[in-house]
Specification:
It is a single chain. The chain is mostly helical and about 130 residues long. The chain has a single domain (about 5-125), classed as DNA sulphur modification protein DndE (Arc Repressor Mutant). Helices cover about 60% and strands about 5% of the residues. The chain contains six helices and two strands; from the N terminus they run E-H-H-E-H-H-H-H. It has helices at about 10-20, 25-40, 60-65, 65-80, 85-105, 115-120, and strands at about 5, 55-60. The chain has a two-stranded antiparallel sheet with strand order 1-2. The relative contact order is 0.23. The model has no long low-confidence stretch (mean pLDDT about 95). This is DNA sulfur modification protein DndE. InterPro entries: DNA_S_DndE, DndE_sf.
Length: about 130
């Protein structure tokens, strides 16, 4: 069972940029990235990320007391039961890397974090 994962360098760069613009830490951006990735109908198997040169993140920091919920959401998206090793780090890393790109693209259409959140609440953009 893995307790750490390493993101891609692209994800690290996105989190550094968005972190300064949104004033959010990587663990919070991970949660947003996972939620963005889960909205995609595209199978996770179609997204490949072999780069592990980015941020090193701890499972407890990302999922905290909601680890079971995160696993259930990733299993539902995958349409199958995931072993602990498939869930974390494999699927979690792919969702974070894919979601980071999606998050950056969505946030670029917002002027600031407050505007971004209002757009999400009003369904002006999907998350």
């Amino acid at each position: 069972m893995g307790f750490r994962l390493k993101t891609s360098m692209q994800t690290k760069e996105i989190f550094e940029e968005l972190g300064s613009r949104m004033n959010l830490k990587p663990f919070a951006l991970c949660k947003l990235a996972i939620s963005m990735s889960l909205t995609s109908d595209e199978p996770l198997e179609d997204y490949k990320s072999l780069d592990n040169t980015g941020l090193e993140l701890n499972r407890q920091t990302i999922t905290a007391q909601y680890d079971g919920l995160f696993k259930a959401l990733l299993e539902q998206h995958a349409g199958k039961s995931l072993t602990d090793d498939e869930y974390f780090p494999t699927h979690a890393k792919l969702h974070i890397d894919r979601g980071a790109v999606m998050l950056k693209n969505k946030y670029n259409y917002s002027s600031n974090l407050e505007h971004f959140i209002k757009q999400i609440i009003n369904n002006d953009i999907s998350i």
